[in-house]
């Protein structure tokens, strides 16, 4: 019923709210004008009646009162005639005549001004009694003039007194009539005022009711739609975008409703896009890490395992074939993984896409199968679906995955920890070049140990816990020492000696190796400065990391260090790995030329183990090649290795490079290298790395250039 009423109002009222409000205000204004006009008109009417009352009725009352006074005056004149002498009667007669004349004039004036029949009849009786009274006192005058006192007395008693009494009675009746008329007129004025009061009150009540009605209509046609808009806006604020504003005939409200509905749809669309960006991978459209954690944060992890998968050699694909091909590989891999998982029941697995080429698979064991058996079966099944090469724009790419597996147990507090454990296992698989690795407590201990190593390494640089050991380089032609290679050693105050094999790779991964390099350079240059007088021809070679080759300010810092200690740049050597140079040859080669221009010697360390090409080798401003230890072991017994090393030596000499072999431990290895034409050697056969007093003793007793 209420809705039908609102619908009826909507159909009757204009469409625009401005017109509705204008109509409401106009109606209220009309009612107000009506009240004012009615009040003014009634006041004017009352005023006119009051003026008429003052002008006519009161005047008539005064005339009637004057008439009564004149009658009293006539009676007084008659008494004077009785008591006066003849000579004094004349004035009394004149007074009686004047009174009579004035009475006639008053009666005539009252008769002419009166329209009331009762009043006219009363006036007629007054006039009649007045004539009788006049005639009676004329008869009285005649008796008095005849000097007949008895006759005059008789006339007075029989004629004048009754006529006078009748005249007085009729005049009194006329006076009472006038008083009643005046009172009736006053009552009529009072009733008119009461009627005006009631009419004004009625009109005011009507105006108030109209105002209330208009307010209700306004509430129905304006406020209610606005409330609907408010409720819809609140629904949008809570994220309910399906709630639409009902359209009304009110143009402004309808436009606002359309705009709000449009805004709701736009927000819903954008929120869906934002949710897609926030919770889904843009390449594979799989759930990302955030959605995985959001979905399973409160889930019981019992009988669950996390398999973290990384596409092997994806970096090489990106660098060789381009990132577009790499993205295609990720998309196709995603499709194959999803296709493979269709063979498992829903709810037993959840596939997500992490950064780069990483995928995460949360799986749950069902039935009698253990979670370990499920993981092994799943990995085999996934590998089967990934065994076929992926064809991307005329390129065939073999895809294989590296797996890190972590099983949930009582010590796994949440999904984040399970993912972290899988990441530790994945890194372990990569470090050991394995297809898969299972998380173990030993890996966690190693990871925690590495984390503490980084903190301890920072402290070691400050507290001078690192040591620079020197291993001699010996010229094979005369077995004289011409320089040293600086090797970093760490004597931990708690753990004792920490092998460089343990902390140097970790420092390289964390980027802290640059601080170690800088410390070693300072120690080497300081040592060369101390040797200026005693060993002026000896050189020291310092290993440079890949991170240092990315730093364009590195040559400036090395040059400033040499200038600070006044050391000849030719006495400082820098050893670089092939892999470090070839990681970004376009920026590394110019940096090496800058270093070489300062006079510093450059050496390629571990030559033969990297993947440099001869074209790049010709561009490198190096002065020395260091043959890796793997080519030297038992070289005296391996003819094929001898031919390979001889080729490397001849190639180095062809490029005007000094060739040195590292890792020489026997005399047979040394003699073989001499026969092959190698220039110098470094290894335990010449000397182990030396430090402190042992270094000083060796310098004193050994052969030097």
Automatic annotation (TrEMBL):
Bilayer-crossing regions: 22-41
Identify the CDD domains for this entry: EAL, GGDEF, HAMP
Question: Which SUPFAM superfamilies has this protein been placed in?
Answer: EAL domain-like (SSF141868), HAMP domain-like (SSF158472), Nucleotide cyclase (SSF55073)
Q: Which residues form the EAL domain?
A: 450-703
Q: Please verify whether the record's keywords include Membrane.
A: yes
> Which PROSITE patterns does this one have?
EAL, GGDEF, HAMP
Alphabetical keyword list = Membrane, Transmembrane, Transmembrane helix
Where the record annotates domain GGDEF, the positions are: 302-442
InterPro entries, per the entry: Cyclic-di-GMP_PDE-like, EAL_dom, EAL_sf, GGDEF_dom, HAMP_dom, HlyB_4HB_MCP, Nucleotide_cyclase, Rev_trsase/Diguanyl_cyclase
Q: Where is the HAMP domain?
A: 220-272
Pfam families on file: 4HB_MCP_1, EAL, GGDEF, HAMP
What NCBIfam families does UniProt report for this protein, alphabetically?
A: GGDEF
- Please report the name of this protein according to its UniProt entry: EAL domain-containing protein
């Amino acid at each position: 019923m209420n809705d039908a009423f609102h619908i009826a109002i909507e159909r009757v009222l204009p469409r625009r709210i401005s017109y509705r409000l204008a109509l409401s205000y106009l109606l209220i204004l009309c009612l107000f004008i009506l009240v004012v006009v009615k009040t003014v008109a009634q006041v004017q009417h009352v005023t006119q009646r009051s003026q008429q009352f003052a002008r006519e009725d009161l005047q008539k009352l005064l005339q009637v009162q004057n008439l009564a006074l004149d009658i009293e005056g006539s009676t007084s004149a008659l008494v004077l005639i009785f008591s006066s002498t003849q000579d004094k009667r004349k004035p009394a007669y004149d007074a009686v005549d004047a009174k009579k004349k004035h009475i006639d004039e008053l009666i005539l004036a009252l008769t002419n001004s009166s329209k009331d029949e009762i009043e006219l009849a009363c006036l007629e009786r007054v006039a009649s009694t007045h004539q009788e009274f006049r005639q009676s006192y004329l008869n009285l005058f005649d008796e008095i003039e005849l000097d007949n006192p008895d006759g005059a007395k008789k006339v007075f008693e029989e004629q004048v007194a009754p006529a006078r009494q009748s005249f007085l009675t009729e005049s009194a009746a006329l006076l009472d009539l006038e008083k009643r008329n005046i009172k009736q007129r006053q009552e009529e004025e009072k009733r008119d005022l009461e009627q005006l009061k009631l009419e004004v009150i009625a009109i005011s009540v009507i105006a108030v009711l109209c105002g209330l009605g208009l307010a209700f209509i306004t509430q129905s046609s304006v406020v209610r739609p606005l409330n609907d808009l408010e409720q819809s806006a609140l629904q949008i604020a809570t994220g309910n975008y399906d709630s639409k504003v009902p359209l009304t005939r009110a143009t402004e409200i309808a436009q606002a409703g359309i705009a709000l509905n449009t805004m709701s749809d736009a927000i819903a669309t954008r929120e869906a896009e934002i949710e897609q960006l926030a919770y889904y991978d843009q390449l594979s459209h799989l759930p990302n890490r955030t959605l995985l954690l959001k979905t399973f944060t409160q889930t019981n992890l019992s009988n669950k395992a996390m398999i973290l998968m990384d596409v092997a050699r994806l970096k090489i694909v990106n660098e060789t074939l381009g990132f577009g091909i790499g993205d295609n590989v990720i998309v196709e891999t995603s499709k194959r993984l999803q296709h493979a998982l269709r063979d498992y029941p829903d709810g037993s697995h959840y596939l997500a896409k992490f950064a780069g080429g990483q995928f995460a698979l949360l799986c749950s064991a069902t039935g009698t199968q253990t979670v370990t058996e499920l993981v092994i079966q799943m990995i085999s099944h996934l590998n089967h679906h990934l065994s076929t090469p992926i064809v991307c724009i005329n390129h065939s790419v073999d895809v294989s995955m590296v797996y890190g597996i972590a099983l949930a147990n009582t010590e796994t507090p949440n999904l984040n920890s399970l993912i972290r454990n899988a990441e530790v296992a994945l890194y372990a698989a990569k470090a050991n070049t394995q297809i898969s690795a299972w998380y173990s407590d030993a890996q966690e201990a190693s990871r925690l140990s590495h984390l503490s190593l980084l903190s301890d390494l920072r402290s070691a640089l400050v507290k001078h816990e690192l040591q620079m050991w020197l291993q001699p380089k010996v010229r094979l032609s005369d077995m004289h020492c011409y320089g040293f290679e600086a090797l970093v050693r760490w004597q931990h105050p708690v753990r004792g000696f920490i092998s460089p094999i343990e902390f140097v790779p970790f420092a390289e991964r964390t980027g802290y190796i640059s601080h170690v390099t800088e410390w070693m350079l300072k120690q080497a240059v300081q040592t060369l400065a101390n040797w200026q007088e005693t060993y002026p021809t000896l050189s020291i070679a310092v290993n440079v990391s890949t991170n240092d080759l990315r730093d364009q300010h590195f040559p400036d810092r090395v040059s400033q260090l040499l200038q600070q200690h006044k050391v000849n740049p030719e006495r400082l050597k820098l050893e670089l790995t092939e892999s470090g140079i070839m990681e970004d040859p376009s920026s590394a080669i110019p940096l090496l030329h800058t270093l070489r221009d300062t006079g510093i010697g450059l050496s390629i360390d571990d030559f033969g183990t990297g993947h440099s090409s001869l074209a790049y080798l010709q561009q490198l401003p190096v002065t020395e090649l260091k043959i890796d230890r793997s080519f030297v072991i038992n070289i005296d017994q391996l003819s094929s290795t001898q031919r390979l090393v001889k080729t490397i030596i001849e190639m180095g000499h062809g490029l005007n490079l000094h060739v040195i072999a590292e890792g020489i431990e026997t005399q047979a290895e040394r003699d073989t290298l001499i026969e092959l034409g190698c220039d110098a050697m470094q290894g335990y056969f010449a000397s182990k790395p030396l430090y402190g007093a042992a270094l000083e003793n060796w310098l004193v007793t050994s052969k030097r250039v």
